[in-house]
Design goal:
The complex is a heterodimer of chains A (about 230) and B (about 220). Chain A has about 230 residues and is of the alpha/beta class. Chain A has helices at about 15-20, 40-50, 70, 90-95, 105-115, 180-185, and strands spanning about 25-30, 55, 75-80, 100-105, 120-125, 140, 145-150, 155-165, 170, 190-200, 220. In chain A, α5 (about 105-115) packs across α6. Chain B is an alpha/beta fold and about 220 residues long. Chain B has helices at about 5-15, 30-35, 90-95, 130-140, 200-205, and strands at about 25, 45-50, 55, 80-85, 100-105, 110, 115, 140-145, 155-160, 175, 180-185, 185-195, 210-220. The chains are: A alpha/beta (about 230), B alpha/beta (about 220).
């Protein structure tokens, strides 16, 4: 009998990927101001017309950049993020009562996602204590110090962007396009990675792999960024 | 915030004097970003960006931008020699663990006890806190750069903040177009005045109780 991990090839088409992203789903995404968000999957979700999603990620991008495109197109009913300031559409929709927004401090959000990705129920953190960020949260005394209980976050589907994948879904990132991606990849019940380059299993240096393929269910090839950056 | 370029640079230049050799620094968006341009050339300062890089450098030349290399504001950067990249959980691990020597932020309001409000104006502007709560609460030194008064001419430096807070008793130093003020156990101390403003101007434009430092200096 052959030893070792499954040699299942995880390469998929956009159509196969989109089968997993449906109305009302909880969708977690990588990216920071759009940098490191998967442009081709976002375009696919727009084209498919998926709506009523709960989006979980650092921010709501810019109006026409990253996940901001889904927010602008009113495809989200709820967002869990640390910042929506760079996408005025998110703020307007929230004010109009058309978008529910739950804020989490950025580091707490990252750690809640990581917790969800590694099988924890939550984390204890003192960030945001004695501010409105602590409202509705349980407090615990641990070793004589008080902490907030912050619950873990998981998703039905996570979408991430990476520089390179092998056919088993091992991922390598590109500079600051890494950001939330490795955390988001772990927290998805089903994780789709959009990548710039796909190589045969065994070609990536195992020491350099950031996300082990066990966390990744599907890999699709990107068609590249189809928006103009704020600085362009 | 409608502040003239020379005024912004003057504030940034003063803030840069707070940054010593060998420190690890996180700069916020806006005027804080300009501070890097004013640090002494011979100093080795390591800049941290909370999206996941330690060792950021100056802006790239036009045409040399790399979309995968940006600061936390989403704008292209370069790196100095020997940078490291990491995920956002690690980036905030560095902050919570106390490795950031200085953070420089903007503010909507600051109180005389160092309370900081900079993430929400309920019902009007709700951008979210981003990483400001961690930075304000956990950096060893918190410097706020801002306009002394709001667009209605009202003091932004108050006895008590009116807006929801980012962090309590977190600010160490406030630098505005008018003055440099330090939050101490004895209260808010006016240490320097930016000419042509006078001590009287600063007092008149500050709602918080100001103690005047015995050797208050004028920055020409």
């Amino acid at each position: 009998m052959k030893q070792g991990i499954s040699k299942k090839n995880k390469l998929a088409t956009m159509e196969e990927a989109l089968e997993h992203i449906t109305d009302g789903c909880t969708l977690m995404y990588g990216g920071f101001g759009g940098v490191g968000s998967p442009p081709t999957l976002i375009q696919g979700i727009l084209d498919k017309g998926v709506k009523e999603m709960t989006l979980i990620g650092n921010d709501t991008g810019f109006p026409d950049i990253g996940i901001g495109r889904l927010v602008t197109a009113k495809r989200a009913k709820k967002v869990i993020a640390s910042h929506i300031g760079s996408n005025p559409n998110a703020g307007s929709l929230m004010t109009e009562g058309k978008l529910q927004v739950e804020f989490s401090p950025q580091g707490t959000l990252a750690e809640r996602i990581r917790a969800g990705g590694v099988g924890l129920g939550g984390i204890f953190v003192d960030v945001g204590m004695n501010t409105i960020a602590e409202e509705g949260k349980e407090k615990l005394m641990i070793c004589g110090k008080e902490y907030l209980v912050e619950t873990a976050l998981t998703s039905e589907v996570s979408i991430v962007y990476a520089k390179k994948a092998d056919t088993q879904g091992n991922l390598v990132y590109d500079k600051t396009a890494r950001n939330f991606n490795p955390l988001v990849a772990m927290a998805g019940s089903f994780t789709i990675a959009e990548v710039e380059e796909i190589v045969p299993a065994g070609e990536l240096d195992p020491e350099c792999i950031v996300t082990p393929g066990i966390f990744v269910d599907m890999v699709i090839l990107t068609e590249g960024v189809n928006w103009k950056w704020a600085w362009q | 915030m409608g502040m003239a370029v020379d005024v912004r640079n003057r504030i940034a230049k003063r803030a840069a004097k707070e940054i010593g050799d060998g420190l690890i620094v996180n700069l916020g968006i806006g005027i804080p970003t300009l501070v890097a341009d004013h640090i002494q050339d011979t100093f080795h300062v390591l800049f941290h960006a909370e999206n996941g890089v330690l060792g950021t450098g100056p802006m790239p030349d036009p045409g040399q931008e790399d979309a995968a290399l940006c600061n936390a504001g989403g704008f292209p950067i370069t790196t100095v020699s020997g940078p490291s990249y990491f995920d956002s959980a690690t980036a905030f691990g560095m902050i919570r663990k106390g490795y950031i020597d200085i953070t420089i932020l903007g503010a909507l309001e600051v109180s005389e006890t160092g309370d900081l409000a900079n993430w929400i104006v309920p019902g009007k502007r709700v951008p979210g806190m981003g990483g400001a709560m961690e930075l304000a609460q956990k950096a060893k030194k918190v410097i706020v750069l801002m306009n002394h008064v709001n667009k209605h001419g009202e003091s932004k430096i108050l006895k008590t903040c009116t807006l929801p807070l980012t962090a309590r008793q977190s600010v160490d130093l406030i630098i505005t177009e008018m003055a440099v003020m330090e939050v101490t156990n004895e209260g808010l101390v006016l240490k320097e005045v930016m000419a042509p403003y006078t001590v009287a101007d600063v007092i008149a434009n500050t709602e918080a109780t100001l103690k005047i430092h015995a050797a208050v200096s004028i920055i020409e």
